[in-house]
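With this grant's support, we have settled on a layout for protein records. One resulting record is reproduced below.
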Amino acid sequence: MDSSAPFNQPTGTGWIEVICGSMFSGKTEELIRRLRRALIARQRVAIVKPNMDTRFSDTRIVSHSGSYLPSITVSTADEIPRAIGGATVVGIDEAQFFDMRLVDVCEQLADSGHRVIVAGLDQDYLGHPFEPMPQLLAVAEYITKTLAICVVCGNPANRTQRVAKSSARVFIGAGDAYEARCRRCFSPGSDSVSSPQTT
């Protein structure tokens, strides 16, 4: 956890915080923790996620450990400003499922005084940068990189190994489809085979 990450309401300006890492590294857990602190401080909070993420709930962001907060689902990044109402703190989960418009939307929100907290995978199942996360990392004021535990050797893991049979870049799944792996144990594409595009 980056100890310099802010927890106060922006004064006269906004900013972007990005929480990134592999699956099972606690990204959503950290997002929820920051949003709960904002709620305790009686700040107006809105949480959004892409509507394709239905793994645990249609109306909540849910961490792998079971923590959750109510959320709004949107189809595109352009829907976010209208969906958040009068909130001043905006949480966005599973950012990798949005298109590149998310970068402009987050910048516009920050420019208008919002605290924007974004969580998402920074690498896809092949270990390639997962857009729009690299672009968000470039413009964010605060960045937190979370690490999981490699299921093979126990080393710190920052990669996501797909074990389901799919070669689609976007394939929704959890522990049944993915594992956290370290640099040494990561074998991109070795456990997946060609299949139709799946979301």
Summary: Residues 27-40 form the longest helix (14 residues).
